[in-house]
UniProtKB/TrEMBL annotation:
Domain of life of the source: Bacteria
UniProt key word Signal: yes
Swiss-Prot/TrEMBL keywords: Signal
Statement: the UniProt record of this protein carries the keyword Signal: yes
One Pfam family in the UniProt entry: LPMO_10
Domain Chitin-binding type-4: 10-206
PANTHER family per UniProt: CHITIN-BINDING TYPE-4 DOMAIN-CONTAINING PROTEIN (PTHR34823:SF1), GLCNAC-BINDING PROTEIN A (PTHR34823)
Protein name: Chitin-binding protein
Length: 209
């Protein structure tokens, strides 16, 4: 008897506008490509292997995205445009371009809404942000980001395979943004999956007033 085909179980943020959404609006990517920006979930580590304590029973991470390819989840095909600086995007489009900025206030609540094709068993979500003094003329690397997530929203149940009904991907969730940021920053949001070695990466350009 043939096994049924496994359905792709991916997702993307649909609100507010991510770099992926901007690329779709520009005709550079399809929504399915933004749904599949998956890379190793041990980020910001450089290597795959067991996931962080106390969740080592989750499926081990594959290799996380390389520097310069973080915002596309490590994808280096058409989706590499999500890692482009304003200068690189301007060259690609043949006109002046700057990634649109979402206006935010320091310390405000930042709400996101996801759309999933079929959600995975979810460990949670990690939020990263660029350092003060980061260089927008360089692609996002680990050196451009604060070394630790500024917020983690994790389910604590272990092992995941006994709690799949509880560990559901969240359609809507929120985070309190750092209080000490000013000006343009990039936020990286990783949806971390318990039952595969991947996370799904989304990125936002924000302007702290």
């Amino acid at each position: 008897m043939n096994k049924p085909l496994v359905q792709l179980k991916h997702g993307r943020v649909v609100s507010p506008s991510s770099r992926g959404a901007v690329a779709v609006e520009l005709g550079l990517l399809g929504t399915w490509q933004v749904n599949e920006m998956e890379g190793g979930k041990n980020f910001p580590d450089l290597v795959g292997g067991p996931f962080q304590a106390p969740y080592e029973s989750d499926v081990a991470s594959v290799v996380p995205p390389a520097d310069g390819h973080i915002l596309s989840g490590g994808k280096t095909d058409e989706r590499d445009c999500l890692n482009f600086t304003n200068e690189e995007m301007s060259k690609k489009l043949g006109r002046s371009f700057s990634w649109p900025l979402l206006n935010v206030d320091p310390g405000q609540v930042f709400r996101v809404k996801w759309e999933y094709t079929a959600p995975h068993v979810t460990r949670g979500y990690s939020w990263f942000i660029t350092k003060d003094g980061w260089d927008p003329q360089q692609r996002i690397s680990r050196a451009q980001l604060e070394p630790q997530a500024f917020f983690k929203d994790f389910y604590t149940q272990v092992p995941y395979d006994q709690h799949g009904d509880e560990m559901k991907a969240k359609v809507e969730h929120q985070v309190t943004l750092p209080k000490n940021k000013r000006g343009h920053h990039v936020i990286v949001l990783a949806w971390i999956v318990a039952d595969t070695g991947n996370a799904f990466y989304q990125a936002f350009d924000v302007d702290f007033k």
